[in-house]
Design brief:
33% strand
């Protein structure tokens, strides 16, 4: 095991409004203080009663999915909580993930999160826990 699912992130035009929709659907608390995230106009969270966290990320010029039209695909990504982003990087690349981070890191530079695509092209992030 490399990490733990931290949250599922949905792209949207209005993060707080969509978090409210899912709160009405699933229950829970919108934007509960949590040291893992900075809450702002571009990011909202919903902590559900089951312990699952949904996050909502503003995307400029958002184009909603049109099921099942592949020209307008489903839009979400997984955040995976890991103890060591650099070590997990090596592990997920060995499993077939592709780094989507622009360029290489400077020597000695460490990031708190990095972006990848799974073998089918779905994005996910490794996030320092």
């Amino acid at each position: 095991m490399i990490g733990h699912l931290q949250c599922v992130v949905l792209d949207c035009p209005e993060p707080l409004a969509l978090a409210g929709f899912y709160r009405s659907l699933l229950g829970g608390e919108v934007n509960r203080p949590d040291p893992r995230w900075v809450l702002d106009d571009d990011w909202a969270t919903l902590h559900t009663g089951s312990g699952m966290v949904l996050a909502f990320q503003r995307v400029p010029e958002y184009r909603p999915p049109r099921w099942p039209d592949p020209a307008f695909p489903q839009q979400f990504h997984l955040d995976i909580d890991v103890a060591d982003v650099d070590r997990a990087h090596e592990q997920v690349v060995a499993l077939g993930a592709a780094s989507l981070d622009p360029g290489d890191l400077d020597p000695g530079e460490t990031l708190d999160w990095r972006v990848y695509a799974d073998p089918a092209g779905h994005p996910f992030c490794l996030v320092r826990g």
